[in-house]
Amino acid sequence: MRRVEEVWGTAVSFDVPDAVGSDPVDEVMRWFQRVDSLFSTWRVDSEICRIARGELALDDASPEVREVLTTCAELCEATGGCFDIAVGARPEVVPRPGLGPLDPSGFVKGWALERAAIMFALHGVRSLMVNAGGDVLVRGEPEPGHAWRVGVRHPTRSDSTMAVLEVTDGGVATSAPYERGDHILDPATGQPAVGVLSATVVGPDLGIADAWATTLVVAGPAGLTTLPTEEGYEGLVVTLDEEVISTAGFNELVAT
Amino acid sequence: MRRAAPAIAATVAGLGLLSQFNTAPDSTTPAAEPAPSSGTATTTAAPKRAATTTTAPTGSAARKTVDGPVETNRFGDVQVEVIVQGGKLIDVKALALPNDRERSAAISDEAGPILRSEALKAQNANIDTVSGATYTSESYARSLQAALDKAK
To answer: Could you say which of A23, A33, A46, A114 is the most buried, measured as most Cβ atoms within 10 Å of its Cβ?
Structure first.
């Protein structure tokens, strides 16, 4: 079963190779719509916007919002402040549509996909690929004995990949300015982070991988030394002069 | 508190002063025959905006290994070893890693992730999906992922 659905202003591709009795995609899409209603910085009535305006107390927010904000605070600490969902509140930041003073978008998409993977598993799905706007989650094998082959997009050639990762259970997240411009802000300055062409992180949790990909865009190649490799997260950075720098564990996942 | 990124920038910027030290044995590699193991000496990609390679020796394929000073960044103390060949940064290794926090100390004990560097290459292999920067609903239509979704 393959489907493409639209949510969060992007396209979500589903690939479920094995036949399943009931199709969970509709249920998953209702979950994604709920995530949008809670976290969208584009919807003035979302819980995240109401919290940012002081209209909703954290204690009165939904459990999902409290969980995400707690995890984002932990990630801010773990990344030395490179991943900071409150960077939009800094006075130096130039306002733009969709940029809120509280913006966990860099974590929420991957987090929501992890929840979706549990929903698929409850429907008996063992082999799964979900790609939400370039953030990839996989489970199991597309066919016995073969891992999912996840291409990493070439930062300057939209029709090409630069590496292929072989992954069975985990997530692959890429952060870069090439699709939506210099949208990642450096929390130290409030200015766009423009030090790399792209950054990719693979690991067991897609939300956490996405937060670290953002971190690598902010910190540059030196950020690779701080990745939690002991927890299974590995990374790759393409520098402005088109050098590819990656952790040793990342290379072990690259298909030869 | 200083950030991680300037650690490498500062280290590489110091190459002009440091490159006479620690020259590795394979520095005799002739310019016309780059070491095949590097894979990077043949790249034609010219540095654009980055300052990382501009201060390195140019016009030579000699491989130089330079140990940078211990830099203090927001994660603690980091020393970076930079390997330059033919004026290009080809490898970066973290020599000393942060030890001021519990998690970082664990990484230090494991010798840290060895960073590998190579030139950016385009390839189109047999793939199931593509990870990339977040596209919009509109730009999805032009993406490699859309082509894959249609093809399968």
So the answer is: A46
